[in-house]
Amino acid sequence: MSQMTLTALPNYPMVEPGDDLAAQILSSLNDATLSLADGDVLVLAQKIVSKAENRYGYYNAVEPSEEAKKLAVEIDKDPRLVELILSESKEVVRKRPGVVVVEHRLGYVHANAGIDKSNISSDDDNPRVLLLPLDSDASARGLQQAIATLTGKTVYIIINDSAGRAWRNGTAGMAIGTAGFEPLENLIGSNDLFERPMEVTEVAVADELAAAASFMMGQAAEGAPVVHIRGAKLQAADCGSRSLIREKAKDLFR
């Protein structure tokens, strides 16, 4: 019988810049009476990684460019926020009042370049927002190595974020950083139940786990930014999440 368990870690503290995420996770695992085993997966909400890395953007420190001012009028957003979005982006993909979808500098296609103001404290006189990590894969690798040093266990890491999806309403979790395993399972050449070879199927296993963990984390005031997964059958690999990003030339919607 195939079985997988997901546990949202309890009593997780509010994360501040410079915090040791590995130590916090191990403390929270202890509160849940869980110990790590080789092959376990830890899924972290992007927000706590960005907070620990001090990826805050402060409006009063931003001088909007002419491009940002023009776009701000088109999409009805604060030009300082728009400048932050553009600074994190390669290209504006779509725009309309209230929404701008961009190609993030790391390759993700994301509304507002993943910049968010929910679940962070802010000062009305100098609002701040939270940017994505500088390099989510590097963040995931660093955490994997730190946990291995502290515990001697080899675990897999996913950093997830919630995002809208083409063709569908609502947000779902997706992986924006991974470490230790192959995030895209290639089934091309494998046989189906009727012995027909699969021709195009690749499974975004990192995204599937990220979405399951996101359901456990919640999106509002739940305060559960780390999920422990046991039983996921993953292929160990020294790679990050880049294989999940479709090349622009193969993207029918750009």
At the first level of CATH, the class of the largest domain is Alpha Beta
- H/E element sequence: EHEHEHHEEEEHEEEEHE
What is the first-to-last residue Cα distance? 42 Å
- The CATH topology label of the largest domain is 60s Ribosomal Protein L30, Chain: A
Number of domains: 2
Summed up, the helix count is 6
Average pLDDT confidence is 94
Beta-strand content: 15-25%
CATH architecture of the largest domain: 2-Layer Sandwich
- Rounded Rg: 19 Å
Strand pairing plus helix content: what structural class? Answer: alpha+beta
* Quaternary organization: single chain
Shape: globular
Q: How many strands, which pairing sense, and closed or not: the largest β-sheet?
A: 5 strands, mixed
Number of strands: 12
CATH superfamily of the largest domain: CofE-like
Low-confidence stretches: none
Strand line-up of the largest beta sheet: 1-12-2-8-9
Report the helical percentage: 25-40%
Question: Can you walk me through this structure?
Answer:
A hairpin with a 4-residue loop joins strand 5 (99-104) and strand 6 (109-111). This protein has two domains: 5-55 and 133-246, 60s Ribosomal Protein L30, Chain: A, CATH 3.30.1330; 56-130, CofE-like fold, CATH 3.90.1660.10. It is 26% helix and 25% strand. The strands form four sheets. The protein has a five-stranded mixed β-sheet. Strands 4-5-6 form a three-stranded antiparallel β-sheet. The chain is of the alpha+beta class.
